[in-house]
Every structure is written in C-alpha cells, then in structure tokens.
Specification:
The chain is mainly alpha-helical. The C terminus is likely disordered.
C-alpha cells in the first residue's frame, strides 16, 4: 500500500514538473545505471587485488629472479601485477613503453564512464533551471491574460520548483560517487606509477650486475608459452 502511494505521488510530481521532466528522468536513468556499474566494478576490482602476490613478484625481481616473477604474475587479475607481467614480457625490448601501455590500459578501464557521470552532474541542474524558466514563463503568461487564473500561476511556479529540485537531486546523487571514483582512480594511478618505477629500477640494477637480457628473452619465451 505504501509503495503504491509513493508511486502515485511520484507520477503526480512528474506530470506537475512539466515537459522538461522527460529529459530529466532520462538523465536520472543514465546516472543510476552508470553509478551502479562503476560501483560494482570497483567492488569487484577490490576483491581481485592481490597484495601477497605483488609482494612476492617484487621480491623475486629484487633478487633478479625474473623467471619466477613472470611465473608468479602470469594470469593474475590484480591490475598492478598484470602491468608488471606485461612489462617483464618486454624486458628485453622497450620495458618503459610496455609498462606505460599496460598502465594506460588499466587507467582507461578504471576511468570508464567517469566523463558520463560528470556530464550528468552538469546537465541535470541545467535542465532543472530550464524547467524553472519555462514554469515561470507559464505563470507570467497567466498573469498577462485577461483572466487571472490562480491555479495556472501556482501550477507554473510548482513546475519550476519540481524541475529544479529534480535536477539538483540527480546532481547530488552523482557528485558523491563521482568524487569517490576519482579518488580511487588517482590512487590506482599512483600505485601503477610506483610499481612501474620499481620495476625499471630493479631491471636496471640487474643489468648493471651483469644480467643478460638475451638469455632472459629465451627463458621468458619459454615461460610464456607454458
């Protein structure tokens, strides 16, 4: 019974908000879908993080045991470990380039749809403002008529307020998760850059100590093919 009353009230407010409510509802649906998808993605990504494997991989590289590092990192779903694996797969060539490409792919995957959420935050209040203008215009048309209709005037003001409130609610709903997702993205970017720097330093150290990249290239190919 309560849900039915709530639904009827929502439908009534929708109609009282005027024609501008149609694009506002469309923006709301997009916002809910995108925020839900990103929330699920970050939850799944948090479950996939594997700090133990990352520590073992870094420890193996510190001991110049790159073969073990590849074996440990192969098939991992952790984005940091996955980037390291792609970098080590090209240690005999452009290590820095491979790390940058792998890190860029991880950042792009993590930042997916953020621009769309940002657009919803911007567009929703603007649509609400447009509804305010059209509502006030309807009220002024009623005032300028031959017969002053109180219901028309109050209806126009109500349309303006409903549209404005709806737009602001969507923007507020999107703003909090948008800031959270941005913070998570910044943190992931920092972790990727830190790990990439560590890999480059340890590979350079191994080469200075006489590490043969050509021998590793053959061993690396054998490990990848396994």
């Amino acid at each position: 019974m309560t849900s039915l009353l709530f639904a009827n009230a929502a439908v009534k407010l929708f109609h009282e908000g005027g024609p501008i409510m149609y694009p506002i509802v469309l923006v709301a649906l997009v916002a809910v879908a995108v925020v839900g998808e990103r929330a699920f993605w970050w939850l799944r990504e948090g479950i996939r993080r594997d700090p133990d494997t990352l520590e073992k991989v870094l420890g193996a590289m510190e001991n110049s045991d790159f073969r073990s590092a590849i074996q440990l990192s192969k098939g991992s779903e952790d984005p940091i470990v996955r980037m390291i694996y792609r970098g080590l797969s090209h240690v005999h060539g452009s290590l820095t380039g491979a790390l940058q490409i792998a890190a860029g792919a991880e950042i792009k995957r993590a930042g997916r749809f953020l621009m769309l959420i940002d657009t919803c935050i911007t567009v929703a209040p603007l649509l609400g403002l447009l509804g305010t203008v059209t509502g006030i215009m309807a009220s002024f048309r009623a005032v300028g008529g031959n017969e002053l209709a109180v219901e028309v005037v109050s209806g126009g003001i109500g349309e303006a307020l409903i549209a404005t409130a709806a737009g602001l609610m969507i923007a507020i709903f999107c703003l909090l998760p948008f800031n959270y997702f941005n913070e998570r993205l910044t943190k992931l970017q920092f972790e990727l850059e830190t790990a990439a720097t560590n890999v480059e330093v340890m590979v350079a150290k191994a080469k200075m100590e006489g590490f043969d990249t050509m021998v590793f290239r053959r061993e690396n190919s054998a490990v990848i093919e396994e």
